[in-house]
Specification:
The chain starts with 6 loop residues before the first helix and ends with a strand. It is built from 3 helices and 20 strands. By secondary structure, the protein is an alpha+beta fold. β13 and β14 form a beta hairpin. 18% of the residues are buried. The strands form 4 sheets. It has a 6-stranded antiparallel β-barrel with strand order 3-11-14-13-12-15. A 4-stranded antiparallel β-sheet has the order 4-10-8-6, with no helix packed on it. Strands 7-5-9 form a 3-stranded antiparallel β-sheet, with no helix packed on it. Helices cover 38% and strands 33% of the residues. α2 runs antiparallel to α3.
Length: 415
Amino acid sequence: MDREISKEVKQKERRRQIIKIAIAVVVIVGVYIGITSVLQSSLNRKDLNICKIDKGVIEVSISASGKVVPAFEEIINSPINSRIVEIYRKGGDSVDVGTPIVKLDLQSVETDYKKLQDEEKMKELELEQLRVTNRSTLSEMEMKLKVLRMQLDRKEVELTNERYLDSLGAGTTDKVRQVELDYNVSKLQLEEEEQKYLNEKALVEAGLKIKELELDIFRKGLAEKKRTLDDAQIRSPRKAILTYVNNEIGAQVADGSRVAVVSDLTHFKIEGEIADAYGDRIAAGSKAIVKIGNEKLEGVVSEVTPLSKNGVISFIVQLNENNHRRLRSGLKTDVYVMNAIKEDVLRIANTHYYIGKGDYDFFVVNNGQLLKRKVTLGDSNFEYVEVVSGLEEGDEVVVSDMSNYIERNKLKLKE
């Protein structure tokens, strides 16, 4: 007959089982940690991007975002309130100078223009009529002056004869005085008529100039109307690519609204944006580098907007090679604007790790090991970053992504 196992024996057996399980778990965890530690603390040199610290020149730059845009782009606006009647070209088509793009309803504008042409002819006839009237008035006055001058000449002769007769005793003093008075009155009348003629001539000339000026102003208005009519016949202003067109037949278009856009897609520029905190470090004439993939294109900042919008300042970079094969309208780019030069400074290659001035943790190669070190970095450009402290010339530094080892201070390096 079996004996019942005591409670103390059962407890001892249970404790032994728990201890065995605990030891097994500890061993498994230890092995796992050991394997992981070995794997993580041992890295192959060929798998790492290692840079050597050297001394040299850094053209300090500030980075900005950019976008490739056509070097030339012209918006064609409707010069009148109208509606679209026909579409001759679609977006993406190549157009030459004068190529029709869109036809607008111009009936009312053409009618107004013809009315103005008729009004111009009427004003020309009115001006000619005024010239004829003025010539007739002045001609009559000139004829009257000729008669008065002839009469004055005759009276002058009479006065001379009376004075001669009076000197011979054949005339009388009263007769001489009467003829002399008549002569003087005629002379004053002539002077009065001459002055009237000069005044009338000046008035006629002034009136004629006013009418000519009115006609000239009217013709300018007519020419402006003609230009509006010509512009309303929407045509390409130059050889380019039609990048936009309002292709809704029957759609109403307001005066000044966009109808089409033509762009030169063979030459480009860069529209850049940078935080306004760096506004004082960018100016027209600054050298710039534009990165598109591995390509680096040189250029110059041509203009900077004077005002900040939403905390951003915009600028334009004109490229030295604005027809480069990698340039595509709308392509996003990185832009580096140079603003200073530092000579004989410690420098390290600029890659993804750099996010601005400050302290960084780097792994430095040291006798087959990688030792973590605190490094202070300064200014940069698209190629190099300035090393302020923590490294020396000749040091080899890992610039690969080491975020998985951020908690470690030492790693093994396999050659």
